[in-house]
Write a structure and sequence with these properties.
This protein is α+β, with helices and mostly antiparallel strands and about 600 residues long. About 45% of the residues lie in helices and about 20% in strands. The protein has 16 helices and 16 strands. It has a five-stranded antiparallel β-sheet with strand order 6-5-9-8-7, sandwiched between helices. The protein has a five-stranded mixed β-sheet with strand order 11-13-14-16-15. Strands 2-1-4-3 form a four-stranded antiparallel β-sheet. It starts with 10 loop residues before the first helix and ends in a 34-residue tail after the last strand.
Length: about 600
């Protein structure tokens, strides 16, 4: 096709050209452009078929069929045949009619097969780059070739530029779609990861909290809520957690928590005790791990805890039982030693008393040795009384148990006990109605009352009161097991005073023989030891509740006796020492206020 000089376009052609350019400006898709372009060019040029090809080096073949007008002729050429119309394959100038082509030309056979009578090929160039090819086939009026050339010359630059922009826009759209898919995939992955994290956190038996340096609680495990009682709605921030859990210590806890955001690796925070929502005290073993800046650039911490409350209780219980065992073993050893010494000493006292009495019988009245022998006899009798107390503590004294109503026994001793404690102290007697019977040697009841009332009297500095009280007590299996006795019903004999009371460190030694807080020579230290021995020998135990400045209450528990047939004059079998326990007073001592 030869180049022709351009002339003036007809007004109709100019108007159509303007319409084409206007529609090109509003079309952003290459295929939309192709449809607009081919349809208008058919009308402008009078061509039977218009084809627009885009150059695409990434394809094989290296072109893209943008559009064919009319659509029914879109299959007139195969992709391989269309490739022959590209300048890269056939760069030379093409004639107007196929019969001007050499028989060996690549397009010769293709054009004859398609029945093409005439054709025109134009480059679409933008900024020196070939964007594509415009093909016109079977022009109706060949005499209008010059006008067609003018139209194409006018339209090809904006067509090429519009196609280039549309291609660029399509690339951007494709990239946007790829990015959108990636974002969707990443969002789905993050959502799945977050869901998995939440499942993992909630499924963990350990309390887990995730928080940031602004103090926000980002995540809270079900274990945290289950063991502490606090939900995420109740502790949305670390400050809320510190206030709820640590109360008055919350400023200290918050200061410690703020310092954790500076750590670079997992840190062990030790054991912290706090108040659960229900009010109970719990102990958790904390450790924190920094997760970096993962929440809007904020440092994030993973806080994990292990609930050691039950373990701490078990350790305390084990320590208490070990202490009870040591105390019981010590008391048992001291009791055996005291019992053995008391037996031997009692035998020697019998000899001393016997000889002293014989010597007194042989002395004439008014002999100067009589006074000395009397003192020897009195000292021996006092020593014999001391050995009886030792034997009571050692549970080796010979006893004659009888079926007693403690109300009657105590009531018969009130006058003697009042004289024993003096007039400055009021003695109050509170017997329980329908009191159960007990099987015990009456002299042992005398020992219990005398020792406890004397101790109570000595603890009252000036005036005060001593209350003696009896009561029936049904003790559960757990309590009996802790005391090392058989479960059942017990009769409680309590002596309560308004004296000075005892500190915990003093009460811890109260049942040890020869331990006393009195001045030297003012007491033997066998009072409570004797009471303890009597109670244990009869299958019971002793409780002591004391507080400095608030007085002391000593309660002796004796088992209820149901069998009315009692053989008097016998002795109760010695109760085996309870394993791994000490007198129950230590487990119920109140700390000084």
């Amino acid at each position: 096709m030869t180049d022709q000089k351009s002339g003036e376009l007809s007004p109709a052609a100019q108007l159509m050209a303007v319409e084409v350019i206007s529609e090109l400006l509003v079309s952003s898709s290459p295929h939309e452009l192709g449809a607009v372009l081919t349809e208008h060019l058919r009308e402008l040029t009078g061509a039977r078929t218009v084809i627009v090809l885009l150059h695409d080096e990434t394809r094989s073949p290296g072109h893209e069929l943008l559009n064919v007008s009319p659509q029914r002729r879109s299959a007139m050429f195969t992709p391989e045949e269309l490739e022959l119309f590209c300048y890269k394959r056939v760069p030379e100038r093409l004639p107007l009619t196929p019969d001007q082509l050499d028989e060996r030309h690549p397009l010769s056979a293709t054009l004859r097969r398609a029945g093409i009578r005439s054709m025109m090929r134009y480059r679409l160039v933008a900024a020196g780059e070939i964007i594509g090819v415009l093909l016109l086939f079977d022009l109706h009026a060949l005499h209008r070739i010059e006008e067609v050339n003018q139209i194409i010359a006018l339209l090809s630059p904006p067509i090429a530029l519009a196609l280039k922009n549309a291609i660029a826009f399509r690339v951007i759209e494709q990239q946007a779609l790829v990015l959108e898919r990636r974002v969707e995939e990443r969002t789905a992955e993050l959502t799945e990861a977050q869901a998995l994290l939440q499942v993992a956190v909630d499924s963990s038996p350990y309390p887990i909290m995730i928080c940031d340096e602004d103090g926000r609680v980002l995540q809270l495990s079900a274990g945290w809520t289950r063991l502490s009682g606090y939900t995420m709605a109740e502790i949305p921030t670390l400050k809320d957690w510190a206030t709820a859990a640590f109360g008055e210590k919350s400023p200290t806890a918050m200061e410690y928590l703020r310092g954790l955001f500076a750590i670079e690796k997992t840190a062990y925070n030790g054991e912290w005790s706090f108040n659960s929502k229900e009010g109970s005290a719990r102990t958790w073993d904390f450790q924190t791990t920094p997760l970096g800046r993962v929440s809007k650039g904020k440092r994030v911490l993973l806080v994990m805890a292990t609930d050691v409350t039950e373990r701490k209780k078990a350790e305390e219980e084990r320590n208490r039982l070990e202490a009870q065992l040591l105390q019981a073993q010590k008391l048992e050893s001291v009791g055996r030693l005291a019992g053995g010494v008391a037996h031997d000493f009692n035998n020697m006292l019998s000899v001393i008393l016997g000889h002293a009495n014989l010597a007194l019988m042989d002395l004439p009245p008014g002999d100067r040795l009589q006074a000395g022998l009397e003192e020897i006899r009195k000292a021996a009798e006092r020593s014999a009384n001391l050995t009886r107390q030792l034997l009571a503590f050692a549970r080796k004294q010979t006893i004659s148990p009888k079926l007693l109503d403690l109300n009657e026994t105590v009531g018969s001793m009130l006058s003697m006990l009042q004289r024993l404690i003096g007039e400055r102290i009021e003695l109050v007697w509170k017997p329980a109605p329908a009191l159960w019977s007990v099987l015990i040697d009456p002299s042992q009841v005398d020992q219990i009352l005398a020792n406890l009332c004397v101790n109570a009297r000595d603890s009252i500095k000036e005036i005060g009161s001593i209350v003696i009280e009896t009561a029936n007590s049904a003790v559960d299996t757990e309590r009996c097991a802790s005391e090392g006795v058989s479960p059942g019903d017990f009769v409680r004999l309590s002596i309560r005073d308004t004296g000075c009371g005892m500190a915990p460190e003093t009460l811890a030694h109260a049942f040890e023989p020869f331990f006393t807080t009195k001045e030297v020579g003012a007491g033997t230290g066998l009072g409570l030891a004797t009471v303890y021995g009597v109670a244990r020998q009869n299958g019971g135990w002793v409780d002591v509740d004391s507080e400095v400045g608030q007085g002391t209450t000593v309660s002796v528990y004796l088992p209820r006796h149901r069998n009315k047939q009692v053989h008097e004059g016998g002795s109760l079998p010695e109760q085996p020492p309870p394993a791994a326990r000490r007198p129950s007073c230590w487990s119920r001592t109140r700390a000084p206020s």
